[in-house]
Amino acid sequence: MQALLITGLPFLVINGQSALRFDIPELKLFFFGSVIWVQELYLILFAILFFLLFITSVTAVFGRIWCGWLCPQTVLLDLAESISRFFSGLSGKTVQRILLLPFSALVSLTILWYFVPPVKTVQSLFYDAVITGFFLVQWVVIYAELACMGRSFCTTICPYAMMQNALFDKDTLVIEYDRSRESECMKCDDCVKACPVGIDIKEGLSTSCIACAECIDACAIVAEKRDMKPFPGYRGNLLRPKFFWLGGMTVAAGIILAFMMLIRPDVTFQITRDPEMMPEGLNRYSWSLYNNTSQRKVLELTSEEGFVVIGETTLVLEPFSFNKGKVLVRAAGGNGNVRFRLLGDGVEIGKSVGFL
Fold this sequence. Notes:
Elements lengths: L1 H7 L4 E2 L2 E2 L1 E4 L4 E4 L2 E4 L3 H22 L2 H6 L1 H13 L7 H22 L4 H7 L4 H21 L2 H5 L2 H9 L6 E4 L12 H5 L19 H10 L8 E4 L5 H22 L4 E7 L8 E10 L5 E7 L3 E4 L3 E4 L4 E10 L5 E8 L2 E8 L2
Antiparallel strand pairs: 1-2, 3-4, 4-5, 6-7, 8-9, 9-13, 10-12, 10-14, 11-13, 14-15
Helix pairs in contact: 2-12, 4-5, 5-7
């Protein structure tokens, strides 16, 4: 389900654009029917803060649930291993490495789809040198990491795995061997054989454990024959103060981020006076417009009495587009600041700028 979500998200179209995609040439992020421009750094920073709070909350409470159940690497390796069991005549490792070739190609394509529309990516593949180059390089790197490093990446290099060790406490959800029943253990070592990272759960907690629960499943098969519960099991306390205050902070950050997105204006208008020398009573101004909606905007740039705007004053903005230009302003009895007004399509914005 998770793999389908990540792969299919770029194909989900909202207001004519991918639900989530970063447009590199125009430096804007399409975000579920809206757009965030690179200069709106406060929104990007707040979104990063929300994400960090979220992963901190999940890790501190649920432990390595991401590593064992949701990480794309874990999903791909588990899928390849499961499919390889149907090919009894071939080596499981050989089948897995063959299966990882198309899987890693799909991952490489998926990464591209978050920057280039999927249809354009497929049409340009092997015709556009840049897209082809990125696709091939990513494919080789991803395949090499999956086929050669595999689970050892999780225990040696992955920065998120290392960070988790600092977030754990005595109540974090972990998988632990029940030492109080050690005398009943059959010592079959099926839990060790099933562990994808090669640890022995009977030796105690290990930072290499990815909480995949393979040891629990393996032990359950043997233990159930003797009407016993598995010796490895989950241990932790979910409903504790940390759960509520971390969860509360994450929810609050999410609500604030949603509110900040909702109160954004349909059109962002910026105008500044150019510092160049002009004849007395005449100033040049540079304006920038950002359309944050999926609707085409036709706007009129005017000024208040006492000033006359010279140049193109009818400004057209296509959906999710950016436009810029310059106008001259002549004093006609006014002095001090000139107040510009942007009117049309339900938009009315006023900006005061100095006039010399």
